[in-house]
């Protein structure tokens, strides 16, 4: 699926989620776990916009489609487990992957950008990266490559996961069903995607700026 198709899918994820619920029933919990797990845990899926997905799922939970606390726990578990897998991939296979050629969605500029964040913020990158698409996917990978102490990584992982899930899931839960938001739901989702990308773009431009 090309980028415009992916963007369109998540802009209208509320429609797709309704179909998934109708077809999968209780298995929808596992489907959503898989999406968040893939975005955070697999280095080859940095294009999945988890922020907007969390908002939509929060809105559906408020409508009674999901048990709110159960869904929140499942999403948090997916985020933490995904980052832990990503860390392990970086630790054991990172150097080989960075030397490989023509791996889809694995661009050196993504890795360089994340390295820049890691040098600037250290372990706190794992928390901050939760709010930066693409960097979110590569931060645990870089932590694994540099062999960051795992208990320390796990602490940052849990803190970042809790803040990320609470912010976007609860935003959807409490604001996703306001009439004005519901009437312009696709535009709201697009705004979330754009706003979540802006900080990463700004940092990338700073990184590209020649040093005096």
Radius of gyration: 17 Å
Return residue spans where pLDDT drops below 50 for at least 5 consecutive residues. none
Mean pLDDT: 81
Number of strands: 0
The best one-word shape is globular
Q: Quick gist of this model?
A:
With 212 residues, the chain is mostly helical. The chain has helices at 3-11, 13-24, 28-41, 50-62, 68-99, 108-121, 125-128, 135-145, 150-175, 179-183, 185-208.
Main attributes of the structure:
212 residues, mainly alpha, 77% helix, globular
Plain-language structure description:
This protein is mainly alpha-helical. The chain has one domain. Helix content is about 75%, strand content about 0%. The chain has eleven helices and no strands. The longest helix is centred in the middle third of the chain and has 32 residues. It is globular, with a radius of gyration of 17 Å. About 35% of the residues are buried. The mean pLDDT is about 80.
Record the SSE blueprint:
Layout: H1 3-11, H2 13-24, H3 28-41, H4 50-62, H5 68-99, H6 108-121, H7 125-128, H8 135-145, H9 150-175, H10 179-183, H11 185-208
Helix pairs in contact: 3-5, 4-5, 4-9, 4-11, 5-8, 5-9, 6-8
